Amino acid sequence: MVLRAGVIGLGTMGRHHVRVLRTMDGIDFVGVADPSGDPHGAAQGGRVFISDEQLIEAGLDMAVLSAPTEHHEQVAMRLAEAGIPTLVEKPLAHTLDAATRITEAFEAAGLVGAVGHIERFNPALQAMRTKLEDGLLGELYQIATRRQGPFPVRIMDVGVILDLATHDVDLTAWVGGSSVAAISARTAHKTGRPHEDLVAATGVLADGTVTNHLVNWLSPYKEREIAALGEAGALIADTVTADLTFHANGSEVNEWEELTRFRGVSEGDVIRYSIPKPEPLMTEMLAFRDAVLGEPADIVTMRDGLAAVRVAEAMRLSASEGVTSYLEDDEPTTA
């Protein structure tokens, strides 16, 4: 079966979605919708519509919604009403209430709904999750992430928590196999915008794994790293290079007494794994296509996307009130 597909929103991610959809098997690329038209020529043969309503009327079997986050709810609701399975670029919505309404609308309509948490499809993180599930580290102690780089002028409607930290809270729960139970965050505003541009957060998963995240738009260098520490050593994933490295605890007795006291756990072998490295966006879109076709597929569901927005809301609540936020209920609470 060939699926008629379209993309709404032609920002950076929207243009990448068009590129991938145009090369996928089983996809008939219908066109794009953006009120600014297609100044970059991304459609490349597909039709260009000024509104999402026009694209919907052209007839779609699946859609990608990559408009600015503040418009996600209104457009997603129209797609749900039209019965079109949709992948919404992350974050799912600009508020927890909006994300909840989108999720419930797609579930009520019985539609496949996904969220573009593309980092889950990074080869290094997929390999990390598999090795953790296989017990490589034994008991998991901590998951730490660092996501920082220069300010992206293209992001104007949300702060660094919704735009970037949602990646990390989603990945931490997914890699660790446990939901976020509590989180404490502090933010900074340094670029003169109403939204935060730096957040540092510490939390805990439901299984007791400690988490911490450093995320900002203020660094002159780009860093994308997630490290998992356990009783047998540490796994470090660099999602820029898609490399995964294992640092094993040493098994040799260190005879240098002073060095042993300083280092604690001794150093063991260091292994950088050789892993296949397909493009994450292609992997993500193939999974979404298969889900729309009713085939088994590992997509990031709207419930998953809703959970990430809930943690983001908890981070903002924690930062504004200077307390820890707890996520035992649907709404984040503080102690």
TrEMBL record:
This is NAD-dependent dehydrogenase. Residues 126-235 form the GFO/IDH/MocA-like oxidoreductase domain. Coiled coil: none annotated. Residues 3-117 form the Gfo/Idh/MocA-like oxidoreductase N-terminal domain. GO terms for molecular function: nucleotide binding.
